[in-house]
Design brief:
Blueprint (H helix, E strand, L loop, with lengths): L14 E2 L1 E3 L2 E3 L6 E6 L2 E10 L3 H20 L2 H17 L1 H12 L3 H21 L7 E2 L6 E9 L2 E5 L7 H12 L3 E5 L5 H13 L7 E3 L4 H10 L5 E5 L2 H13 L3 E5 L4 E5 L5 H13 L9 E7 H17 L18 H16 L3 E4 L18 E4 L6 H4 L6 E7 L2 H9 L3 E2 L1 E5 L3 H10 L4 E4 L15 E2 L17 E9 L16
Parallel strand pairs: 1-5, 8-9, 8-11, 9-10, 11-12, 13-14, 13-19, 14-17, 16-17, 19-20
Antiparallel strand pairs: 2-3, 4-5, 6-7, 7-22, 15-16, 18-21
Helix pairs in contact: 1-7, 2-4, 2-6, 3-4, 4-5, 9-10
Bound molecules: 2-aminohexanedioic acid.
Length: 509
């Protein structure tokens, strides 16, 4: 079972195993599953091992065995491996992007962006390997030094989604490796091939056996076994709020650390003084880029009432021009959605919107004409007259659907934008600096944009959200290592006598 062969059309698509302890292995139960091209469902891009509790246990044991030596390896040496991996990712950017489009569906330009985000993250973490990673802090006592240092946690479980099949794994795997942890990596069942490619690159870059282990398969089996495993003290998960909260409960009960990144119901506020053409450009990109399958997707357009008619007219015209198709076709603006279940789930939200008397302006249907019928295509969908309490204004749809919510003024815009359970990304369009800054102050989200849509975060800044979106962690940026390391505080007393903090320094009388 080697992963070397290029993927081909079914039935000759290759079969890939788990990567455990430095070797590719067949799944213990012998079960496999297929990853298919969402633009052409008859095309199998690969067959993969369907992992279960036994495979996970094997991977955890391999990680435990590799951990001590990796933890002792100097951080700059670990960083050098990441630097080599970044170069390999850059060398293979085009091939990886094409493969991503075939496995996941996003249009090729966006797939290139996903790979680039992975390269950026890997380079950034390689650089972090030679930067200060602790502090020297003054002691209140003489002849005493105090400093902090980061130490690895041990074996960490990384569970990643399919929508950014390369970038998001790098947000977790790279800082976890740099911090000195060993990893069991369980990628989404819809995009295992991108995970295989990433693991291959890290091995080629020189990662020692057992430091990174890959177990492919389904959340209910492999994912749940990883979360429950007694020798995995930390889990990092990106995915739905429903699954994330179940993981958090399991981790909480077992005293484990858990980092969650759980989606959003992101809004773009368009104030009447804003540049409406710029806002239309932003809405199109934010709502329909990646077929709306970003946790940062612009799924609400909160528009000041006096601008609604003009904004809507311009937006409807532009949505009508979006070309739906295979992401490998340069003429395509919007690719397929990930799978059949999601396709029907998205359509269910169209029905919910209509039942609640929102007005459908365009789209709202599964596309079946010609070649589109071979894949999972949903027409870019725009609702208006949406009220803030409607399901389409409250629940994460994760598809090419967005909703115009008219509001009377700035105050109502703030209330509506903040009025969901999520708190990932919010945007405001205005030319008025005072209102822009007031919005920055008042919007309840981990990420706020001014005059840009809700998508487009850069890796050198913290990524994550408030409220239901997460549990306080931030990925990437200056905070990337926090989720994957412990702080050790060290006091060194070289006075040769007992010195008592708080007491000897504050003698009275
Ligand atoms: C996600 O949607 O899960 O900010 C991540 C963005 C991308 C990352 C999105 N850089 O849209």
């Amino acid at each position: 079972m080697t992963p070397a062969a290029a993927p081909a059309e079914s039935p000759s698509a290759p079969t890939y195993g788990h990567f455990i302890g430095g070797a590719w292995r067949e799944p213990i139960g012998g079960r496999t599953f297929e990853s298919r091209n969402p633009a052409r469902r008859q095309e199998v891009v690969g067959r993969f091992a369907a992992g279960g509790a036994d495979d996970i246990d094997l991977a955890v044991q391999a990680a435990r065995a590799a951990f001590p030596a990796w933890a002792r390896t100097p951080m700059p040496e670990r960083a050098d491996i990441l630097l080599r991996a970044a170069r390999l990712l850059a060398d293979r950017k085009e091939a990886l992007a094409e493969l991503m489009t075939r496995e996941m569906g996003k249009v090729l330009t966006e797939a290139r962006g996903d790979v680039q985000e992975g390269i950026d993250m890997t380079l950034y973490m390689a650089g972090q390997g030679r930067r200060p990673s602790g502090e020297t802090v003054p002691s209140e006592l003489r002849q005493k030094r105090c400093f902090t240092e980061r130490v690895p946690i041990g074996v960490v479980g990384c569970i990643t989604p399919w929508n950014f099949p390369l970038a998001i794994p790098t947000w977790k795997v790279m800082p976890a490796l740099l911090a000195g942890n060993a990893i069991v990596f369980k990628p989404a069942e819809d995009t295992p091939l991108m995970a295989v490619r990433l693991v291959e690159i890290l091995i080629e870059a020189g990662l020692p056996a057992g430091v990174l282990n890959l177990v492919t398969g389904f959340g209910e089996d492999a994912g749940a076994a990883l979360v429950r495993h007694a020798q995995v003290p930390a889990i990092s998960f990106t995915g739905s709020a429903e699954v994330g909260h179940a993981i958090a409960a399991a981790c909480g009960g077992a005293g484990k650390r858990v980092g969650l990144e759980l989606g959003g119901k992101n809004a773009m506020i368009v104030l009447a003084d804003g540049d409406l053409e710029l806002a239309v450009d932003g809405a199109l990109w934010g709502a329909f880029g990646t077929s709306g399958q970003r946790c940062t997707a612009t799924s609400r357009l909160v528009v000041e009432r006096s601008a609604v008619a003009e904004f809507t007219e311009r937006l409807v015209a532009r949505v009508g021009q979006l070309h739906l198709g295979d992401g490998l076709d340069p003429a395509t603006d919007v690719g397929p959605v990930i799978n059949e279940r999601q396709l029907h789930r998205i359509h269910g939200y169209t029905e919910a919107g209509q039942q609640e008397a929102a007005r459908l302006l365009t789209g709202g249907a599964i596309a079946t004409d010609g070649a589109l019928g071979e894949g999972f295509f949903y027409r870019p969908t725009l609702f208006t007259d949406v009220r803030p309490a409607m399901r389409i204004a409250q629940e994460e749809i994760f598809g090419p659907t967005t909703a115009i919510i008219p509001v009377d003024d700035f105050e109502e815009a703030m209330t509506v934008a903040n009025g969901t359970r999520y708190g990932l990304s919010l945007a405001v369009y205005t030319r008025d600096l005072q209102r822009a800054m007031a919005a920055v102050d008042r919007l309840e989200a981990g990420i706020v944009y001014v005059n840009a849509p809700t998508i487009g975060a850069e890796i050198q800044l913290p990524f994550g959200g408030t409220k239901w979106t997460g549990n306080g962690h931030r990925e990437a940026g200056t905070t990337a290592m926090d989720e994957f390391s412990e702080w050790k505080t060290v006091y060194i007393d070289y006075s040769g006598r007992l010195q008592r903090a708080q007491i000897d320094t504050h003698q009275t009388g």
